[in-house]
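Review form for a predicted model. The reviewer records the input and the model, then writes brief findings.
Reviewer: anonymous (R2)
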Amino acid sequence: MSDVEPVRASASPKPDLSGTVIVRDLFEDLGEVLLTDMLLQAQNCVRAFGDFHLAISASEQTEPALVRLMLDPAYRLLPWKRTHLWTIDDCLVAIDDDRSRGKRLREILVDHSDIPIDQVHGIPVSDDDPAIAYQDEIRETLGWREKGQDRLDFALLSLGDGGPISEALAGRHHADDGPDLVIRKPWKDPRGIQWHAMSPRMISASRLLAVLAVGEPARADVSAIAEARRIGGPNTAIGGIKPIGGEMRWYLDAAANPSGSNP
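Model under review:
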């Protein structure tokens, strides 16, 4: 990790969001903070529980950080052999379709790490009922942990990626916030493509809930979330997503920060 990283911290004001807000002017520096947090969380969880459950929304926004996770020597100590990799959301397209988030995870992380294939958990989009099948897999896999520890250790979301969880987080879509671990009813995007996703309850229970907001398109979403919190109070849950017994961290670059000057 960089010795000069603390100097790179943005001097811009931070928006009022629930949890910890991290702002860096450059995406390169922001990615360094995000991946360092992920690595530390992985190492701590392996020491405490024997494994690390990492859930990712594999969008275009998170892709540069995931690529760096594979290429930067600073993150080679991530314990892939002890890691379970989960897909947060995915669209119902063929597994070799470029829009498939499961495909993006396979090509960026799975194919270039030593993670055991049986520890890779994608949404079974070709199943007759993907939601039920995925929920059963989550319960069976996390059931090996002690009760109370059976939750995700790190969930990486992104704003402005067009998926159901991103839309829910921005307040444009209220995801089903019932007791299920996976949203039962598929969500349709403006193109008419159906999506399945982990439920807000499942995501909110993560030990560390990381939201990446980068670029000008994410700026309006961050502003809307901050405004909803101002109106509704500090306990406002946007789209049903709010940390439950864990921590929420927002990672913003200068372009996505509505409290800073226009980039």
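Findings: The chain is about 30% helix and 15% strand.
Further findings: The first helix runs from residue 27 to 49.
Recommendation: see findings above.
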